[in-house]
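Archive entry: two folds, one per protein. Generate the first.
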Amino acid sequence: MKERISKTAQFFMFLFVLLILYLSYLQFVKAPSITAHATNPRLIERLSKRGGIYDRRGENLARTLKIKGEFKRDYPLGEKISAVVGYDDIIYGESGMEKALDPYLKYPGIPMDPLLVKRILEAGKWAGYDAYLTIDARLQKAAFDSLENRRGAVVVMDPTDGAILAMASSPSYNPEYLDKDWQKLTGDASSPLLDRAINGLYPPGSTFKLYTLTAALESGKEELSDEFSCSGYLDIGNYRIHEAEGHVHGKVNLTGALVYSCNVAFAQIAMKTGKSDFLKFQREFFLTEDFGFDLPVTPANFPPEETLTETGLAQSGFGQGEILVTPLHMAMITSAIANKGTLMKPHLVKVIKNSLGDIVMQEEARVLSKPVSEGTAGIIKDMMVQAVERGTGTAARISGIKVAGKTGTAENPHGVTHAWFVAFAPADNPKIVVCVIIENSGYGGAVAAPVARKILVEALKK
């Protein structure tokens, strides 16, 4: 038995030595020829010209430069656009639109015959397709700069066709220095690699009252003439809902409840609407559904109907409790109201062209859903206009332009409240929707509304 064990051990030792010798042969003898082989993906990556990514007017967002005979990816806007464009790296792969568009950007349709590949690449006659996004580089820079290095996000979209005009996330990173900064970036507690606009989940606070109002009016549970009495708090069983700073709104109608952002009123509105009618609009607005966006979007979080208590429903009515959404979700709700109740499918790609300038793919505007009737959308729009003119959103007023907006101040268990603001303008013919969130910064009306105003002014410049 001992002799058999010894021979078996010797046999496996012999195989191990052979494996070591073979790996050494591959690494030190064959490595140059393997590296130079025409079908080596890294060789193709270095020798082929990756297609460019441009904004809606043709400004460079990501381009390929030839340096010392090899192509290198360059990002002219750096950290201002990385949340959208992402990166293309030989070590860490791709992210963002670099990943989403990789089949178009990287030698699409190239024949995989090794000799033909080598000839094409060495002749420098193969290039990927160019992608033109819906992003407006001018607005993208304005949106990112408006965050002033604070943690948060901005989404700017056209409500009439769903085009994303800007999508900024802060803190960010510069793809130019990805290799050098990778360890620092992955270890940073502020998560600069996270795209907060589509993957950051937050309690929406009072901006969510737009959703609650939609559910209440569309289900017929509330009417414009309904009134509420606010003494600064509301007791539901053993739980007390209170107004910010203990404000007492007194007797308010439905319009006043939104204009002055009354939590007590919206808790009652949600309870009167009922769990079923309240929760079904998460699907109508595609908050928890995959709607085929160009980049992965984290679904919103809603409590299941069977576990939602009366207290939880009341909290949900003013955007607290278990509800968590992304800034893109709030932009979608606002966009539907701005567009007379029709939600257009958000998208980032405008057109893709080959090296000859021929269009190979074009994104068409598409209706995603109609969660709000035109009448209800008009009622909520008028309320939002009054919220800016005389309510909690006065910091977003623009001389000569009617702005519709809603503030939000979201409590969270991790510190100071998050500041939200959603808006669209001009209110009677909306061209721009803006959603702003700034983490742990205080009141939405004081912090986020001025940021939204700045972006709206920039967007509406001729």
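Generate the second and append.
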Amino acid sequence: MKIIVQNKADLPNKYIRLLKWKIYRIKRKFNHLLYAEVYISKEGTSPQKYRAVVKLGIPGNDIMLVHRSESLTEVWRESYKDAKRYLRKRKERIQKKLIAAQS
């Protein structure tokens, strides 16, 4: 699996490592993840917000997640929860199709 990170917000490597760790964790749980692309940028100046666009490559249509927040941990937490939700839903659909095909 390939993970591409475009860090336009000049974040320290510890945040990038945390992000990659979470993506690898998702990969272990849901085996059909092919690649991940993450685009990180800053928005605004006074209350500086971070914007993360996460593109998860799976067989069929890719999953795009966009989150904004003043806290990076909040952005990662929301992205992780949404990625798990979408991949779980996809896994359930695939299992239902397999069961229907065997009948």
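Annotation attached to the second fold: Residues 67 and 78 are 7 Å apart (CA to CA). Residues 2-102 form a domain with the Double Stranded RNA Binding Domain fold (CATH 3.30.160.100).
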